[in-house]
Specification:
mainly alpha
Length: 435
Amino acid sequence: MIKSYLLTPFQKFVQLESLSGILLFSATIIAMLWANSPYGDTYQALWETKINIGAKDFGINKALILWINDGLMAIFFFLIGLEIKRELMVGELNSVRKATFPIFAAIGGILVPFGLFVLFNDRPETAGGWGIPMATDIAFSLAILKVLGKSVPLGLKIFLTAFAIVDDLGAVLVIAVFYSEGIAWFLLLYSFVLLAILYALAYRGVYIKYLNVIFGLIIWTLFLKSGIHPTIAGVLLAFAVPIRRKIDASTFIEELTALLDKLKGAKAPAQKLLTENQLTTVAELEDLVDDFHSPLQYREHQLHGWVAYFIMPVFALANAGIVFSADMVLDTALIVNIAVALFVGKLIGISLFSFLAVKLGLAELPDGVNAWQIVGVAILAGVGFTMSIFIANLAFAGQLLLIDSAKIGILVGSLVSGFVGAVVIKLRSAKTAVG
């Protein structure tokens, strides 16, 4: 059974991701309407605007869309890293028994779409797109489950989140290993020296926010210049954030009570300002609260809203604006291949590997979840969107025709997967509730 004290935080997470999915969908529609409106030129011009940060001879000069895809998305990947670490340490992946089911599902959801894409691709120029159908968009998927209402069991949402996080880890590894080239190893070495320092501090339970931010900016720049995609730096930096608190609950309550007693006993100030003793006590209270926070949990809590409500919608707005015209040339084979790999690949891969884990006695279905609901979530996992578009930009860098074709394939596959998956889950959940 799921502990009651875990329900509220997870339900808040689901609510946040669900609203993020709605914002993503809205940003996508706005981008496509804008790009195909009489003001379409302003859409293209906006994202191609050059922005230089740094000195003239030592700076980074990039188009706005690259600052979004390389910079803002590094924060998105940092959050993914925090989520992966939390799940490995204290979440649904922190024991073999709990992790087996979502891990098997994620492996199937990665291998089968990859296999289908490679099987149906017969041209070398599109071969690099094999990583596109591997990822699942948590925000969109959870938003669909949210729309289906209370008939969807919480265990199904937790399962979706857990295997999607493993999916993201797989996508991160694919980007790091296969979509990075021309690596400058000496720059990478410098970044790993800085990472080693942060990891050593984290191992000792030391977390200095401003030091991590400064080191993080340097490491991100070194990754950018080295040839490894800089978003990978975000994931690696997340693992340098400790999860342990400096003080336990009993110590916190004891010291908090003492500080509150000091505040109650202090003489009220004649004016609206605090006295010197009250200022000191409030400062001690702030330090106490900081010590009681889990640095990882607190950073995750702070970033979730920014990523869900700003970074991901901005990414969608900047990347989903495909221009349609009567004379446009598209790669139909690539569109079909990606759409099929997302829908059929996720359906077969996640369902087959999940039930194989159960059949072998390595795992069991989550509480309150039936086999048809797992099939429905497997279909729903074909909603790739954010990560799939991100990988498409890397796979076909500079090839606008292939990028646009890949995006259309992602949109078609995601729409079909979202609709069919929602219908299957709704029908089976309603039947379970009646039964």
